[in-house]
Design a protein that fits this description.
This protein is an alpha/beta fold and 535 residues long. 24% of the residues lie in helices and 27% in strands. It folds into 2 domains: 323 residues, 4-Layer Sandwich (Purple Acid Phosphatase, chain A, domain 2), CATH 3.60.21; 189 residues, 5'-Nucleotidase, C-terminal domain (5'-nucleotidase,  domain 2, Alpha-Beta Complex). The strands form 7 sheets. The chain has a 6-stranded mixed β-sheet. Strands 6-7-9-12-14-13 form a 6-stranded mixed β-sheet. It has a 4-stranded mixed β-sheet with strand order 20-25-18-21. The two termini are 39 Å apart.
């Protein structure tokens, strides 16, 4: 994998358009650029390596000079997972995508974070939105209760690239979304939907739709735009999905390239036995993925397909739209407050050392996970003025925490980006035996990560059966929990409704203790950190 550092950008500043000038008159190279898993990462964060929306805009503008015949698309998860996005109500999303030239997207699991109704009107909302019908989501394997693709999705779409002299190259896209979406989205948000992981069968079936031949079948270049994971293994691109065996059936006879996402990996290479070009650009705008196809304009035959990963450049001077976008981002950072009324720039505490929490090392209790779960437990204790001696355990699914905290001052924005989803907190009156079942399910959750807990010392055997649980509360008391002991458990709404592989039966409605006025998860964490001089 080249992990291309955009040397072509520097060359383009000296000799723009040389790439196309060297081609024979009857040949042209078109570039389909893509971002993936952007997650509303508008604000630059050098500690996390997030370049920010302005740098992404400037980089794409520069790449357009290198590849004058181009399209720009996205492979889904455009928002979600960003506290800044939610705090600013997504105000920057449409301006950024218009500036990048994006009007076509795969559907990611996070597209459903705010429900189907919101997704249906997403790009037409507000004065800064797209005109109705001018933004397209492609996804062929999602069906509604009536068995049809929901009206806010299209199974496929095509775009044309003007290559001069009145000629065009047509690029067709078919979209797919991972079949594991029901385990990654709150059930209420996807009610009535099914997610078909028989990907090859889905692709065969859409060929029978009436306009497939004139939309995709006659396209010069045919690409899969997927929110399905890939990874690099021993230098080769491989599928990372629940239905990887099914995906192995995709062939280069039908597809000139695949743009992937979801696993937040840098992937560039060829996949399957027929060596289909595939690329994925990590996440949060860190890379731009490029599929380059050279076309014979006489026969409309694809002569060559190459891939490229171009790292987003933070050292390029911001000009034009990128500079205006940076100013807008800075203004929102300065003036936006959380739902609880705290300014995004407010300093909360100081981290004595970096606190890491990574999905690549997800089968352990992290220090940050402990702090988050303590925040949940203590939010309930403060809200109801409960005694320090009462056992209250906070629990969290590993994936709700999206990243770590750097050492030094910790701002509200830093906390929000680490814990962005701001879900409702729910409280359950459990017995020790109920808590043990929950903990054992979380210890064995290899797909999504170990359960995170607070005030709880857990001993388990090699098969992840809990042999002892000791409650060690905020006053330092230590008490071994027995099967019949009562304990209050605080968790977020996503986890209790089946998120990240936790069965809803682990959180029975009969055990729920209705508590009004609890802060949402992120504000609970913010409030807790305010009480700690250092962490």
């Amino acid at each position: 994998m080249k992990h291309f550092l955009c040397l072509t950008l520097a060359l383009a500043l000296l000799t723009p358009h040389t790439a196309s000038a060297r081609k024979k008159p009857q040949q042209v190279t078109v570039a389909v650029m893509a971002i993936n898993d952007f997650h509303g990462a508008f604000a630059r964060d050098d500690y996390k390596g997030i370049p920010g929306g302005a740098a992404l805009w400037q980089t794409v503008d520069s790449l357009k000079r290198v590849y004058p015949h181009h399209l720009v698309v996205t492979a889904g998860d455009n928002f979600g997972g960003s506290y800044f996005y939610y705090a600013t109500q997504g105000r920057l999303m449409a301006p950024l995508f218009r500036g990048l030239g994006i009007d076509l997207s795969a559907v990611g699991n996070h597209e459903f974070d705010e429900g189907q109704d919101k997704l249906a009107r997403r790009w037409a909302d507000g004065p800064e939105g797209f005109a109705p019908g001018s933004f397209t989501y492609v996804c062929a394997n999602v069906r509604g209760a009536d068995g049809a693709i929901p009206p806010y999705l299209r199974p496929y779409a095509a775009r044309s690239i003007d290559v001069g002299r009145g000629r065009q190259v047509k690029v067709g896209f078919v979209g797919l979304l991972t079949g594991s979406t029901p385990q990654q989205v709150s059930k209420s948000r996807i009610k009535g939907l099914t997610f078909d992981a028989r990907y090859t069968a889905v692709l065969d079936s859409v060929k029978r739709l009436p306009d497939y031949a004139t939309t995709i079948g006659d396209a010069d270049v045919r690409l899969l735009l997927t929110h399905i994971g890939t990874a690099m293994q021993d230098g080769k691109a491989v599928w990372d999905d629940m239905a990887a065996d099914n995906l192995a059936g995709l062939t280069a006879n039908n597809w000139h390239g695949i743009l992937t996402s979801h696993t937040h990996q840098a992937v560039e290479g060829r996949i399957n036995s027929t060596a289909i070009p595939v690329v994925q650009g990590l996440c949060q705008g860190r890379y731009v993925s490029i599929v380059k196809a050279t076309i014979d304009l006489r026969s409309h035959r694809v002569l060559k397909v190459e891939t490229e990963l171009c790292r987003t450049r933070t050292d390029l001077p911001l000009t034009g739209g990128a500079a205006r976008f940076a100013a807008l981002t800075d203004s929102l950072l300065a003036h936006t407050r959380t739902a609880g009324g705290t300014p995004l720039g407010e300093r909360l505490t100081t981290a004595a050392a970096p606190l890491t929490h990574s999905r690549r090392d997800h089968m352990k209790q992290t220090a940050l996970g402990t702090l988050v779960c303590r925040a949940y437990a203590e939010a309930l204790r403060r809200h109801l003025a409960l005694p320090d001696t009462l056992p209250i355990v906070g629990v969290s699914h590993f994936g709700s925490i999206r990243g770590g905290l750097a050492d030094g001052p910790v701002r509200v924005l830093d906390v929000g980006e680490a814990l962005p989803f701001s879900n409702e907190l729910r409280v359950f009156r459990m017995k020790g035996a109920d808590l043990q079942r929950l903990v054992e399910a979380g210890l064995a959750n290899t797909a999504y990560g170990r359960i995170q807990t607070s005030w709880l010392d857990i001993t388990a055997d090699a098969k992840q059966h809990v042999t002892a649980m000791t409650y060690q509360g905020p006053t330092g008391q230590s008490r071994r929990l027995k099967a019949e002991d009562e304990v209050l458990v605080v968790a977020d709404d996503f986890m209790t409704h089946g998120g990240d592989g936790y069965a809803p039966a682990l959180f029975p409605d009969t055990l729920e203790m209705k508590v009004e006025g609890l802060p949402a998860t992120t504000d609970a964490f913010i409030n807790y950190l305010k009480t700690l001089p250092t962490i």
